[in-house]
Amino acid sequence: MTILPDSGTILSSISETTASDIDVCDFASGRRDIWFRVEGTGDDLIASTCSDGTTFDSIIEIVESIDGTCTTLSCVSSNDDAQGCDSKSKVRWSSSVGTTYFVRVLGFTPTTSGDFELAITTSMATMD
């Protein structure tokens, strides 16, 4: 699913997903996850699960697609337990126009599951 920044909150779940074998950032593969596609706007973007609608210990990874697909990936940033968000996550990154990014939401352990709210914004607010 492609998400447009500032288009609202996505409600989803990792409860019925299977673990992917992809390990791009600092977090091990083998955890339930779901991926969203975001096209770079040239702005700083923030991906956040820091809301009451997120019911599990979440991790967010921002992964850049080098070739526009999932074939060649590079880790841009990741977060587990953002300050002020308990066990939820928030990541800020500088996007480039025309670059495809994947936002991966995953659980802290292989058995973690639950619902989440994901927001992608172009807010220039500071990260706490």
Index terms:
single chain, 128 residues, mainly beta, Jelly Rolls, 5-stranded mixed beta sheet, 4-stranded antiparallel beta sheet, 9 strands, 0% helix
Quick gist of this model?
By secondary structure, the protein is mainly β. The chain is built from no helices and 9 strands. It has a 5-stranded mixed beta sheet, with no helix packed on it. Strands 2-9-4-7 form a 4-stranded antiparallel beta sheet, with no helix packed on it.
How does this model look, in words?
This protein is mostly beta strands. Helices cover about 0% and strands about 45% of the residues. It contains no helices and nine strands. It has strands at about 1-5, 10-15, 35-40, 45-50, 60-65, 75-80, 90-95, 100-105, 115-120. The protein has a five-stranded mixed beta sheet with strand order 1-3-8-5-6, with no helix packed on it. Strands 2-9-4-7 form a four-stranded antiparallel beta sheet, with no helix packed on it. It is globular, with a radius of gyration of 13 Å. The termini are far apart. The mean pLDDT is about 85.
Averaged pLDDT = 87
Strand content: 35-45%
For the sheet with most strands, the description reads: 5 strands, mixed
Number of helices: 0
Structural class: mainly beta
**What's the helical proportion of residues?**
under 10%
CATH domain class: Mainly Beta
Number of strands: 9
Number of domains: 1
